[in-house]
Amino acid sequence: QVQLVESGGGSVQPGGSLRLSCAASRSIFSIYAMGWYRQAPGKQRESVANFMSGGITNYADSVKGRFTISRDNAKNMVYLQMNSLKPEDTAIYYCNARIIGVVTQDYWGQGTQVTVSS
């Protein structure tokens, strides 16, 4: 199991930047996948960026070149640097951890609101 706590959301004007942080309650080194999802009002939750086992990093096409996911294994932290923000990036952002075992389980943080508006 793992508990996840996000922080760093807020309101920003288009073109601005935010950095989201996700604190995990245990070592993230061996977790199969960790990353960020978002859910806008009236829309399904979607993957934004994630790390997978083996060093693979994935980004949604809509954020490539603007967002960067990073991790600090020593601090059990995952970050999402968001630059050149657009109004369509407005959503609740969730940290996710996927742990592979006898049963594959997804763990979620409580979410942090990001609002991009002029």
Structural commentary:
The chain is mainly beta. It is 0% helix and 53% strand. The chain contains no helices and eleven strands. The protein has strands at residues 4-7, 10-12, 18-24, 33-39, 46-52, 56-59, 67-72, 77-82, 91-99, 105-108, 112-116. Strands 2, 4, 5, 6, 9, 10 and 11 form a seven-stranded mixed β-sheet that branches. Strands 1-3-8-7 form a four-stranded antiparallel β-sheet, with no helix packed on it. It starts with a strand and ends with a strand. The mean pLDDT is 94.
Task: Provide a quick synopsis of the model.
The protein has 118 residues and is mainly beta.
Name the descriptors.
118 residues; mainly beta; four-stranded antiparallel beta sheet; 53% strand; globular
Which class of secondary structure composition applies to the elements? mainly beta
List unreliable stretches of 5+ residues.
Answer: none
Oligomer status: single chain
> How many helix segments?
0
Helices and strands in order:
Layout (H helix, E strand, L loop, with lengths): L3 E4 L2 E3 L5 E7 L8 E7 L6 E7 L3 E4 L7 E6 L4 E6 L8 E9 L5 E4 L3 E5 L2
Parallel strand pairs: 2-11
Antiparallel strand pairs: 1-3, 3-8, 4-5, 4-9, 5-6, 7-8, 9-10, 9-11
